[in-house]
Amino acid sequence: MVANPEPKYMSTQEYLEWEEKQPIKYEYINGEVFAMTGGTIPHTSIALNLASALKSHVRGKGCQAFMADAKVGVSENGPYHYPDVMVTCDERDRNAIEAIYHPCLIVEVLSPSTESFDSPSETLRERGKKFKHYRRISSLREYVLISAEQMNVEVFRLNDRGIWELYTYGEGEEIYLISVDFRCAIALVYEDVVLEYDEQETVG
């Protein structure tokens, strides 16, 4: 995600109408638009692997799975983001055209260039901005972060007390997403993926 060098502030409706005419995708935060940059091949492969598995899993269950070209609206006034993968099971999203507003699951694939904005970890000042926005979505039950550098998946799950709990999965483990009652081996998510960390080690 890259900010425009000369910020232009827009209303929500102006953004939605303007973005329809643009050749690339833009996120919308506090009246500003941010150009979406392309991801790496591992990033794309991971998202496709999970999205394909989720789409197959929710077929016929009243849910819909989406990849990065579908945007999510935290509210009708924004912010608007483009998750790598998301699932909605809400009837209100059934005929959505511009954006999904009631997802139960949102997934972000982390690369070194995107990690500081996507990740909820408190180890860096700028991490967690998206998660802060997403937590305002009342239908959201799980927020998933997948590393493109190593085999690691973090699942933030909203418990019955309204507290977000962290579950981590590593090599050889089975991932469980309670929001859509989905289980799969972590190896499936990383199928045919050359991890970025391993690639850097080889080059070095």
Description:
The chain has 204 residues and is of the alpha+beta class. The chain has two domains: 37 residues, no CATH class; 164 residues, tt1808, chain A (Alpha-Beta Complex), CATH 3.90.1570. Helices cover 24% and strands 28% of the residues. The protein contains six helices and 13 strands. The chain is globular and about 45 Å long.
Task: Summarize it.
By secondary structure, the protein is an alpha+beta fold. The chain has helices at 12-19, 41-58, 115-118, 129-134, 186-189, 196-203, and strands spanning 2-3, 26-29, 32-35, 64-67, 72-73, 80-81, 85-88, 103-110, 142-147, 152-158, 164-170, 174-177, 182-185. The chain contains six helices and 13 strands.
The main β sheet shows up as: 6 strands, mixed
Q: Report the C-alpha radius of gyration, rounded.
A: 17 Å
Kindly estimate the percentage of residues that lie in beta strands according to DSSP. Answer: 25-35%
Total number of strands: 13
Q: What is the level 1 CATH name of the largest domain?
A: Alpha Beta
